[in-house]
# Entry
Amino acid sequence: QVHLVESGGGLVQAGGSLRLSCAASGTIFSIYTCRWYRQAPGKQRELVATITSGGSTNYADSVKGRFTISRDNAKNTMYLQMNSLKPEDTAIYYCNVRNIHWGQGVQVTVSS
# Structure
């Protein structure tokens, strides 16, 4: 049974930073591509960032240059460092492994 647990969300002012974590259990974490998605109220879930097993990364244009995805395979954990946050980054953020397994989501709210 794969289990993903996110943490690190919260309320921050525009221009601030947050670091999300996603701890995985029950899977060989290191061999899979990991992703962060987000869903804002009234909008579809969108892909934010991707990191492959080899460490290659890709980002949505809306977060490029501000967000950084990373992973620590020894800790079975992935991260999303979010800098220069904007009100439009407000959403529930979800981690994903293999495009199959999902975390429960963590709220990020950016005030103007």
